[in-house]
Design brief:
Layout: E1 2-9, H1 12-26, E2 31-35, H2 40-46, H3 52-60, E3 63-68, H4 78-85, E4 90-96, E5 109-115, E6 125-127, E7 132-134, H5 140-157, E8 162-167, H6 175-187, E9 194-199, H7 200-209, E10 216-219, H8 221-234, E11 242-246, E12 251-255, H9 272-284, H10 288-304, H11 318-330
Parallel strand pairs: 1-2, 1-3, 3-12, 5-10, 8-9, 8-10
Antiparallel strand pairs: 4-5, 4-11, 6-7, 11-12
This protein binds 1,4-dihydronicotinamide adenine dinucleotide and magnesium ion.
Length: 332
């Protein structure tokens, strides 16, 4: 029996979470779902975007699934704080192309490893009417930890055997200086893995001009966030981009996308990002075989191109695409 925390959040976060629960219910495994609230609607109801109770549920579960939340003016981001509370310091964001889905190149397959606990997302901002300052916190401890994860992943993936460090140390000399130094220090323990480092602005271009160059990309919090949305755009959009937040004690899995107010309530959100995140969760709790089956099922449905949500050029509803994927999984 696995205890899974379920936090739908707002907008399409709740809609795609229904797809994840539907899929998990159909598997030959035992799950106990523990529901937690977070986000904008939660703030309107409880006066906080992330209640203590939700943190408790997530901490005491074997893994957490998070949908997406709408930002609340003047309030901290619940997902950033939840990542910190669970100390899930590594945000893993795999990017791959699918046959039949518009992509800047065939065979794109890389993963972004984003530092999750500090950087410009420290949420430490202050100042006066004229001047406002955001703290960009970078520590050697966190930078070495995230580099370690990136090298281990490159070793496990057996693709290009390479890690690319992305930073802006020509301008952010101290903070990104430490990030880059930490990267090369960890690299010494992995002589079999190739290394390179690029500035973030150049990387934004290389991702488009030469996406096949990348295997594992490691970066700080904000750069990792921006590059992962860009990367999703290379291969079919946010509806296909999953993520896993991993720490020593906890795992938190969520689509890369937000609550998408422009399509919320219409029942047309692409469930794949959430379903692939659920697959990453299953891999994390040790159900590797079923995780692989789910990835294959998503690939089959997406590549067949018959039942696709509008973001992928189809007319299907979230529920129809979910059902097609679930049928594919259970017929495996
Ligand atoms: P978004 O990711 O919600 O949407 C960006 C665009 O992608 C929209 O056009 C949307 O319709 C489309 N899109 C996203 N997911 C999709 C899916 N599954 N299927 C089909 N189309 C999809 O980002 P946006 O619009 O910048 O932010 C909306 C709200 O979400 C904001 O309040 C923002 O703060 C929040 N947000 C929350 C995140 C989280 O909870 N982890 C992450 C990003 C944004
Ligand atoms: Mg983002």
């Amino acid at each position: 029996m696995y205890n899974i925390a379920i936090i739908g959040g707002d907008g399409i976060g709740n809609e795609v979470m229904e797809s994840a629960e539907y899929l998990l219910d159909k598997l030959d495994l035992n799950f106990n779902f523990n529901y937690g609230e977070a986000g904008f609607e939660c703030f309107n109801k409880n006066g906080t975007t992330l209640p203590e109770e939700t943190i408790k549920i997530a901490k005491s579960s074997d893994a957490t699934l998070f949908g997406a939340s709408t930002s609340t003016p003047g309030q901290p981001s619940p997902i950033i704080n939840l990542r910190k509370e669970l100390d899930v310091y590594a945000n893993l964001r795999p990017i791959r192309s699918y046959k039949g889905i518009k992509s800047v190149a065939d065979n794109i397959d890389f993963i972004i490893v984003r530092e999750n606990t500090e950087g410009l997302y420290s949420q430490k901002e202050y100042g006066n009417d004229n001047e406002v300052i955001a703290e960009r916190v970078i520590t050697r401890t966190a930078s070495e930890k995230i580099s370690e994860i990136a090298f281990k992943l490159a070793k496990r993936r057996k693709k290009l055997n390479k890690v690319t460090c992305v930073h802006k140390s020509n301008v952010l000399k101290k903070t990104d200086g430490v990030f880059k130094e930490s990267f090369y220090k960890v690299a010494e323990n992995y002589p079999e893995i190739n290394t390179e480092d690029f500035y973030v602005d150049a990387t934004a271009m290389y991702l488009i001009t030469n996406p096949l160059n990348f295997d594992v990309i490691v970066s700080t919090n904000l750069f990792g966030d921006i590059l992962s949305d860009e990367s999703a755009g290379l291969v079919g959009g946010l509806g296909l981009a999953p993520s896993g937040n991993i720490g020593d004690e906890n795992g938190l899995f969520e689509p890369v996308h937000g609550s998408a107010p422009d399509i919320a309530g219409k029942g047309i959100a692409n469930p794949c990002s959430m379903i692939l995140s659920t697959s990453m969760m299953l891999d994390y709790i040790g159900e590797k075989e079923i995780s692989q089956q789910i990835n294959k099922a998503v690939e089959s449905v997406v590549c067949r191109g018959k039942i696709l949500t509008p973001d992928l050029g189809g007319k299907a509803k979230t529920k129809e695409m979910t059902e097609a994927i679930v049928q594919e999984v259970i017929s495996c």
